[in-house]
Amino acid sequence: MNPLHPIMFAGTGSDVGKSIIAAAFCRIFRQDGYRPAPFKAQNMALNSYATPEGLEIGRAQAVQAEAAGVPCHTDMNPLLLKPTSDHVAQVVLNGRPVGNSSAYQYFRKEGREELRAEVNAAFDRLRTRYNPVVMEGAGSISEINLREVDLVNMPMAIHAGADVILVADIDRGGVFASVYGSVMLLTPEERKHLKGILINKFRGDLRLFETGVKMIEELCGVPVVGVVPYYKDIYIEEEDSVALETKQVQAARGKINVAVVLLRHLSNFTDFNALERDPRVHLFYTNNTDELQKADIILLPGSKSTLSDLYELRRNGVAGAILAAHRGGTTVMGICGGYQLMGQEVCDPHHVEGDIERLPGLGLLPVTTQMQGEKVTRQVQFRFRDSQSLCEGYEIHMGETRPMEGAQPSPLNQLTDGQADGYFVDRTCMGTYIHGILDNTAFIDYLLEPFADRLADTVFDYKAFKEEQYDKLAAHVRSHVDMPLIYEILQAHD
Predict the structure, then answer these.
(1) pLDDT tens digits for range 2-11
(2) Do strands 413-415 and 420-421 pair parallel, antiparallel, or not at all (unpaired)?
(3) Which residues are catalytic?
(4) 156, 115 in Cβ contact below 8 A?
(5) Angle at CA 450, nearest 5°, toward 449 and 456?
(6) Which of 99-103, 132-136, 453-457 has the least mean pLDDT?
(7) How, if at all, do strands 48-50 and 400-403 pair?
(8) Please, what is the average pLDDT of the chain?
(9) Cα-to-chain-centroid distance, residue 100
(10) pLDDT, tens only, 460-487
(11) In angstroms, rounded to a whole number, what is the distance separating the alpha carbons of residues 78 and 426?
(12) Is residue 177 within a helix (H) or strand (E), and if so which, with residue range?
């Protein structure tokens, strides 16, 4: 295939749909015979993923790699910021944590060029292996107060020689001002790289915006490459947990009701996407004590701050509600931080998370956790309990959990490398460090089996479902974007 320029989807602001559009183009280029790969120099998210090498990247780039049909790699997201509070984030560079930084410290000029060299080198390595590289910006393309320290938007596009498509969200309003203002605030050098504008999340009759397209093109001197309608029937993993609160709904009849406890520092909420789409399940997020009592299964998710969330669960009564529900027959399962919460105690003598050195856990599992400074990140294959099904997942955690003195080992999972994972009391009480365990059909069937008498739906294949969604997304975007123009832009001689 002829080499294509790198393409960057930058935005007029945050949450305009850059990640989803980039995923769509990863699948489109793959369908058209290319070998694309995603790239985002810097990502800020609590949702992360372990690469095959056991390193950590943002989940959005892992999703885009999946859409492209290639293994994810740290070069696709060399710099990841994982917030630990409103002002501080853990800095993950090339897949490994290198310390915590406040926003003020991080955005200083000092040391910035070292980070710029790292993200540029990651891109340079990636472009030798893939064609084209599908790049994603962050936030707004025109944060002029951060221009000198920006690593991810136009300085990255200039280094890459990328063709930039500006993505604007018409659904939030003010699309003309946001597009025109973003373009006018670019420097002459930056504007050379801006090759197109894509209007996203349009509702209504597209014919009503035909004059709007012409106005934008005349104002900005840049072609509008497409107007992509809002969709409701395509399900792609979300990058951030902003939408979780909209999923706080009451339990439903005729299905298995699964409640995910809405922790303050909840991370890796994509662990529950498969259950959310499973036709046998009604899944909702809540920290309402009454709603928890109505659940058949309560899932305790991962946390970026286990001790802080444990303290909050005890303060707001959710801990007591979980214990009461379990006494009444509700299944309780914890994943990663949720597994730590279910033990007898969580200890942090080295102050890895903060000032709290010890808190009693929920007491559902006979295990103790001690926080460690070294983060475990790896992909794993495993078999659970007596099952012969080979399952896959990944670990990202800081902490070691082991049985209390006098408690017998009772692992939930046996890893293919011989190690054991998690703890199993019975079918109603278990915990694991493995993210993605619920992406495995065999394990979901095992979890739901005690409630099988009320089910009529067939087994749900999540992997096949995701592939179908990527294809639907690609078809949706392809049908509303001028792909011949996109290819013309990506093959033009400068």
Answers:
(1) 899 999 999 9
(2) antiparallel
(3) 336, 435
(4) no
(5) 60
(6) 453-457
(7) unpaired
(8) 91
(9) 20
(10) 788 899 999 999 999 999 999 999 999 9
(11) 41
(12) helix 175-184
